[in-house]
Amino acid sequence: PLLMIGGLYLCFEGVEKLHHAWTHRRKKTVAEAGQDIAQLAATTPAEKVETEAEKIKGAVRTDFVLSAEIIAITLGVVQEKDFTQQVGTLSAIAILMTVGVYGLVAGIVKLDDAGLYLTQCRSALQQNIGRAILWAAPFLMKALSILGTAAMFLVGGGIVTHGISALHHFIEHAAASAGFIGPVVAPLLNGVCGLIAGVLVLLLVSGIRKLRGKPAAH
């Protein structure tokens, strides 16, 4: 049940990102852009800190769910092993996640800073590399955002479908019947199921927020 809840949460987060992108897809007029700039300029430092804190809170919450899912899955794999092996496996996973995954994320976040630093160096080669990094950074961030959202549906949907026996067997049968494209069919169906599950959770959460008098997610 805990894995299912975590999977549903990942699907919900993915759909919420899509919902936000869809509701803000229209290009703003010059007047609207001017209003946004004026509103941003009028924002107090305390409000900026609060907004940033909300973003960080959401990121930490998602990372916590992902970490808990990985730990739960790992425990399920090594549950029949002795205590020493369980501790060793969990420790290895924790180190790998902390140093590998979060270290990589920290490096990506600081990528533009590194590019800016290189542009201020004396070497022409370093300056060119810095400019290339600054040019590529926005595209990289956009690509990572898209891949991250897709991963939420694939991972979350996979967890949800695995917890529903009939659906899991259907996907396995569909993948086995698809021939050489079978390895693609299973993740694709998991992703579709994750998308549907996320939409249902978003509708439920939005309904609860309306009943409680809170604004819907944007």
Label this structure with key terms.
218 residues, mainly alpha, 8 helices, 86% helix
Q: How does this model look, in words?
A:
By secondary structure, the protein is mainly alpha-helical. The chain has one domain (2-211). It has eight helices and no strands. It has helices spanning 2-23, 30-42, 45-78, 83-109, 111-119, 124-163, 165-177, 182-211. α1 packs across α6 (124-163) and α6 packs across α8.
Write the layout of secondary structure elements.
Blueprint: H1 2-23, H2 30-42, H3 45-78, H4 83-109, H5 111-119, H6 124-163, H7 165-177, H8 182-211
Biggest β-sheet description: none
> Structural class of the secondary structure composition?
mainly alpha
Query: What is the 3D shape?
Result: globular
Rg from alpha-carbon coordinates: 22 Å
Q: Count every beta strand, where a strand is a DSSP E run of 2 or more residues.
A: 0
What is the residue-averaged pLDDT?
A: 80
The helix tally amounts to 8
N-to-C order of helices and strands? HHHHHHHH
Strand content: under 5%
Tally of individual domains:
1
Q: Unreliable segments (pLDDT under 50, ≥5 consecutive)?
A: none
What separation lies between the terminal Cα atoms? 28 Å
> Helix coverage percent of residues?
over 70%
